[in-house]
Structure formats: C-alpha cells, structure tokens
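[Meeting: bench + compute handoff]

Bench side (C.D.) handed over the final construct sequence. Compute side (W.E.) agreed to return the predicted structure before the next meeting so the bench team could plan truncations. Sequence as handed over:
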Amino acid sequence: MGKGLFSKFIIVFVIALNVVFTGAVFYVFLKTDGSEPQVLIGSWFAFTTTELWNLARIKQVKIRKDDKK
C-alpha cells in the first residue's frame, strides 16, 4: 500500500465495523424485547476509539520526526 494509505484504510475499516456493530446491536435489541448489552457496547466503542487515537498519535509522532529532519 502507498504512503498513508494503510492508516486511511484502518480508519474506514473501523468506522465500517462500528456501523455494522451498531446495526447488530439494534437487531439484538429488537429481538430480545429491549435488553441491551451495555458493557459490550461500552467496551466496543472504547476499544475502537482507543485504536483510532493510537493511530492518530503514531501519525503525529511521524510528522514531528519528519519536521525535525
């Protein structure tokens, strides 16, 4: 993959996973008479948010290294 393309792919992939996960949770919510997996939902979005923040941090460090050169 080209320069910067991998991180863009990861961002789009995580957003797509979040959309699919949200749809699946809505489906389960409707099929179980309003019972929602609160811990799973919170953990999922905490995980994906952390992954995106870490990806942004890696990019930020690379930019700073390039600026110093």
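W.E. noted at the follow-up: The chain has a mean pLDDT of 89. C.D. will use this when planning the next construct.
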